[in-house]
Design goal:
- The chain is mainly α.
- Helices cover 61% and strands 0% of the residues.
- It has one domain (20-90).
- Helix 2 (22-42) packs across helix 3.
Length: 93
């Protein structure tokens, strides 16, 4: 009996999430670009480029390889998910 009332109270407090839209995609793209920009300047030059390199990058990204891209894009998705949930909760998107 106690567990049933606990489960019923949890079911009533489920937050709604934002459905996909072009504005959600734009927020995620901007978050990823910001994370890549931050990561490029935050990763020290001694540690940059230890793994496989990415082909076809401009000279500006010399030494920015696959591990750095994977790390910064992962951070960008975490950042983007937080921003999307916050903006959705605020009613902006």
């Amino acid at each position: 009996m106690i567990y049933t009332s606990l489960l019923m109270s949890i079911q009533n407090n489920v937050p709604t999430t934002v459905s996909w839209s072009p504005s959600v995609a734009i927020v995620m793209i901007i978050s990823n670009l910001l994370a890549i920009f931050i990561g490029f300047y935050a990763i020290s030059k001694e540690n940059r480029g230890k793994g496989p390199s990415l082909p076809g990058l401009p000279r500006m990204f010399t030494g920015f390889g696959f591990p750095e891209l994977l790390a910064t894009a992962s951070f960008g998705h975490i950042l983007g998910a937080g921003v999307i949930l916050a903006l959705g909760n605020a009613g902006v998107i």
